[in-house]
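Progress note, sequence design subtask.
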């Protein structure tokens, strides 16, 4: 292997998140606008281009690949891409191949994902109430997602649930979600909503629920014990003393975790974002399409990593404003 990728702040890049499509069958209120314009097909990297690019990252030391979107499982023939990436697991170059999904298509793909080498999936699920689910996703059906999760378990995949903390929703949803995850044996991670994509400034401030507040709320009923456990991502974990359940908190706003960031993100158009919370990006599609020379591609990747900033500027601390807003939708960069 070549020298690993490292950024100007001494962080080694081992984790690549790849958005394979900007499309989705849901329109979650914190992620997308009600009517979205999706990118023309020519802009999107082909599966062959994605393979070439991901393989270059893996040669440069990336050990963990997370496939996301948009909704990755709505992309046509995406399973062939998972199968192709499986060869890097078998060679030992890649330690983990995983995905983040809304779960709607999981029932029909779970088995094949397992065969391709996937062992864990993150399913985004903010509520167990069918009406609230329909309202938050604008067009999703809860029973379809629950069926997908069941299929994943039957196929032998471990499931982690990610829930975005939303003011006015999560405070009372929390107990049902925690109880269900404990009963089903799913880890549960809460995520602070980030100001990404234009869904209206007003709406963002209405949505934000600090995980510090959520944690305090949980601690009114249960004892939470901090643990040093990490799963390679940004979550910090606690154990619920009474049940042993593990809970994760992803707190980009109330506790900045940039100093240990080992991640970069590739959009479905081949733009490399070295920070989710900054506008800058490098055009790897241009490098990819300019020539078939992998050495030139690897040099373009190294040059992009040299631009990784120290951290994001998201900030809700000044009353009435949202600092550090990013114009991209989360579905474009991939969460
Ligand atoms: N469609 C898939 C899903 O929902 O899991 C994958 C893509 S989605 C963009 C990835 C994650 O980003 C989801 O867990 C979603 O809840 C989260 N997300 C979307 N918009 C967000 C925002 N503005 N702030 C924080 N998390 C967000
Ligand atoms: Fe789709 Fe995921 Fe965004 Fe919801 S969070 S709209 S499921 S991409």
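Output:
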């Amino acid at each position: 292997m070549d020298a690993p990728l490292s950024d100007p702040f001494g962080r080694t890049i081992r984790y690549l998140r790849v958005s394979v499509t900007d499309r989705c069958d849901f329109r979650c209120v914190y992620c997308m606008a009600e009517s979205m314009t999706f990118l023309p097909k020519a802009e999107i990297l082909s599966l062959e281009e994605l393979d070439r690019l991901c393989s270059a990252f893996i040669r440069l030391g990336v050990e963990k690949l997370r496939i996301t979107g948009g909704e990755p499982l709505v992309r046509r023939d995406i399973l062939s891409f998972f199968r192709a990436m499986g060869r890097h697991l078998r060679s030992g170059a890649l330690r983990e191949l995983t995905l983040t999904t809304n779960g709607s298509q999981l029932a029909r793909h779970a088995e094949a994902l397992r065969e391709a080498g996937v062992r864990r999936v993150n399913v985004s699920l903010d509520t167990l109430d069918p009406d609230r689910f329909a309202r938050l996703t604008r067009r999703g059906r809860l029973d379809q997602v629950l069926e997908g999760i069941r299929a994943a378990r039957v196929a032998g995949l471990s499931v982690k649930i990610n829930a975005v903390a939303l003011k006015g929703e999560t405070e009372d949803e929390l107990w049902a979600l925690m109880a269900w995850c404990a009963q089903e044996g799913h880890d549960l991670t809460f995520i602070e909503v980030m100001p990404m994509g234009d869904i209206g400034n007003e709406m963002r401030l209405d949505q934000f629920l600090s995980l510090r507040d959520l944690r305090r709320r949980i601690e009114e009923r249960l004892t939470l014990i901090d643990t040093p456990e990490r799963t390679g991502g940004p979550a910090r974990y606690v154990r619920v003393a009474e049940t042993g359940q593990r809970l994760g908190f992803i707190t980009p706003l109330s506790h900045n975790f940039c100093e240990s960031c080992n991640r970069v993100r590739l959009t479905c158009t081949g733009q490399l974002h070295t920070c989710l919370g900054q506008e800058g990006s490098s055009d790897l599609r241009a490098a990819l399409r300019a020539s078939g020379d992998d050495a030139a591609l690897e040099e373009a990747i190294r040059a992009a990593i040299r631009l990784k900033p120290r951290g994001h500027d998201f900030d809700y601390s000044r009353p009435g404003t949202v600092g550090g807003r990013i114009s991209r939708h989360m579905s474009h960069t991939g969460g």
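Residues 24, 26-28, 31-32, 69-71, 102, 124, 330-331 surround iron/sulfur cluster (ligand 2) (CB under 6 Å). Work on this subtask will continue into the next period as scheduled.
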